[in-house]
Amino acid sequence: MPRITLPESSVFSLDLTLGCGQVFRWEKTGAWWTGVVEKEVIRIRQKGRSLIFEGTSRERIHDYFGLDTDLGFILDSIDRDPVIHGVITECNGLRLVNQPPWECLASYICATYANIPGIRKKISLLSETFGEPIPAGPGPVFYSFPSADDLAESAPCDLSRCSLGYRAPYLCSTAREIASDPGWEERINALDYDVARRDLMQFKGVGPKVADCVLLFAFRKYEAFPVDVWIARIMQRHYGAAENRGYEQISRSGREYFGPYAGYAQEYLYGDRERLLS
DNA sequence: CGCCAGGATTCCT
DNA sequence: AGGAATCATGGC
């Protein structure tokens, strides 16, 4: 089975990376994580400095987990006070993965005002209903995440079986838009953060929070600082944000305070939210 | 059962 | 620009 040995200087925690809530399709059984990335079922585990995996290429693992990213440099740049310093210690090795853009966009549209177990279920239902089974030997069947075309072409775009609630028409509309806009990835990629953000927010069901998540998790715009209810509470308790501050104010203050890798700070705070709010 | 959730939209002032 | 009401569903 292929194996990647991480260099001494490269900090990485597979458990924190896949378990912090940035992705919704990975599951851990025993020591092994199993997940679907595009058309591949990947199994992977970590033993110290080694990553052992099957189902995909070495290049895919490097790219998906951002193993060539200098995490130490990023963490140094956001390490500005005792609070974030403690979080960096607690969650050391957490990396932002490079998510496929469409899956990320669709997933975070589904994620609005839902909790993580519920989100996982919605995405699982979407994949089983509209995705394609991936041949992967014996055991349970895994499904690819449906493409925008898959969803747009599903006759009346009937997503009602997937527990999406009021998000269903949003996802349906955005799937159609994306299906007829094949250049959207390249376009967003080429735009600066704030322009790209306005572009994404033209899709139905995409407000500032979803846009920030997509820019951060799929387009590597690391200054994005998504604010959900947990981050809002953390910013209130630990960073003196007033109680009735709106999204833009909290997000901007996070960006200005933590700098060009504010999104990393956000994800570390989110990953350690239980301790920070206990 | 009631409260909450990686919020967005619409309508209002 | 900044509120408030509304939205559908499942987890806990």
List the helices and strands and how they pair.
Layout: E1 3-5, H1 14-19, E2 27-29, E3 32-37, E4 40-47, E5 50-54, H2 58-65, H3 71-78, H4 82-90, H5 101-110, H6 116-130, E6 133-134, E7 142-143, H7 148-153, H8 168-179, H9 184-190, H10 193-200, H11 208-217, H12 229-239, H13 247-258, H14 262-271, H15 273-277
Antiparallel strand pairs: 1-5, 2-3, 3-4, 4-5, 6-7
The structure holds a DNA duplex (13 and 12 nucleotides).
Can you describe what's shown?
The chain folds into 3 domains: 3-68, TATA-Binding Protein (2-Layer Sandwich), CATH 3.30.310.40; 70-90 and 221-278, Endonuclease Iii, domain 2 (Orthogonal Bundle); 101-217, Endonuclease III, domain 1 (Orthogonal Bundle). With 278 residues, it is an alpha+beta fold. The longest helix is centred in the middle third of the chain and has 15 residues, at 116-130. The model has no long low-confidence stretch (mean pLDDT 96). Helix 9 runs antiparallel to helix 10 and helix 10 crosses helix 11 (208-217). Strand 2 and strand 3 form a beta hairpin. Helix content is 49%, strand content 10%. The structure holds a DNA duplex (13 and 12 nucleotides).
